[in-house]
Design brief:
InterPro entries: CHP02453 (IPR012808), UCP028451 (IPR015996). This is TIGR02453 family protein. It comes from Nitrospira japonica. The chain is of the alpha+beta class. The protein has one domain (8-224): BirA Bifunctional Protein, domain 2. It has helices at 8-19, 23-28, 30-55, 123-135, 137-152, 200-224; strands at residues 59-60, 88-94, 103-108, 112-119, 158-160, 181-191. It has a six-stranded antiparallel beta sheet with strand order 1-2-3-4-6-5. Helix 1 crosses helix 3 (30-55). The longest helix is centred in the first third of the chain and has 26 residues, at 30-55. It starts with 7 loop residues before the first helix and ends with a helix.
């Protein structure tokens, strides 16, 4: 496994941005952002892509902003007071990026390393597809098995959003509880110190991604590529 790491300056930059979240400060530190965030982020994506393709052959790992590296600036319409994120986000997906539903993801925050997989929101178009898959006896049984296996390994599937079951869906299936979900994902936190240790962040990510690959595959097969 590649010995990639983020420099100590990465976490220092994120902490400073947290305390100085203004366009003026960021503009004055663009070169720092490029050097201690963007460049090591690209190296991480390349290394992560090699590992992920052994788990999920068709997964995309693009070492660029708006590829597998999310941009730092928030939507200006909703973030006038805090125009920038104070973390680095990574995403790896299958198919067309703008059509992808599930993915493997990671987050480098000032105080933690976040790792996970799945979908943070199905949206109006994909939610009916998700519910049909949950209610289908075969597909629902597979999801129930994914959830059971994940729980045995200490993972918690998140995304519950509704108190009432949707109309016109049977609620006695093996995965019926997920009819109350509007998203389906797992997120775990690891110590931030892993980020700056040679290979430690990548090793932790791959370890969790390997365990969560079945969740990603279920969403991709039965929601993203649903017919």
């Amino acid at each position: 496994m590649a010995s990639v790491r983020f420099p100590d300056d990465t976490l220092a930059f994120l902490h400073e941005l947290k305390d100085n979240n203004t366009r003026e400060w960021f503009s004055a530190h663009v070169q720092d952002y490029q050097q201690c965030c963007v460049e090591p982020a690209k190296a991480f994506v390349i290394a992560a892509g090699r590992e992920l393709r052994e788990l999920i052959p068709g997964i995309h790992a693009e070492p660029s902003i708006m590829g597998s590296i999310f941009r730092m600036n928030r939507d200006a319409r909703y973030a006038k007071e805090t125009p920038y994120k104070t973390h680095l986000d990574f995403w790896f997906w299958e198919g067309e990026r703008n059509q992808a539903v599930s993915g493997m993801f990671a987050r480098v925050a000032p105080d933690f390393l976040g790792i996970g997989a799945g979908c943070h929101g199905f949206g109006k178009e994909r939610l009916p597809m998700f519910r049909r898959a949950v209610a289908d006896p075969r597909q629902g049984a597979r999801l129930a098995e994914v959830a059971r296996t994940a729980a045995e390994k200490g993972y918690v599937l998140k995304g519950k959003a509704y108190k009432r079951y949707p109309r016109d869906f049977r609620t006695d299936g093996l995965a019926a509880e997920f009819l109350l979900y509007g998203a389906l994902y797992v997120h775990v936190d690891e110590p931030v110190r892993l980020v700056t240790r040679n290979g430690a962040m990548l090793e932790a990510c791959v370890r969790h991604w390997r365990e969560l690959a079945a969740l990603h595959e279920w969403i991709t097969e039965f929601v993203q590529y649903a017919r």
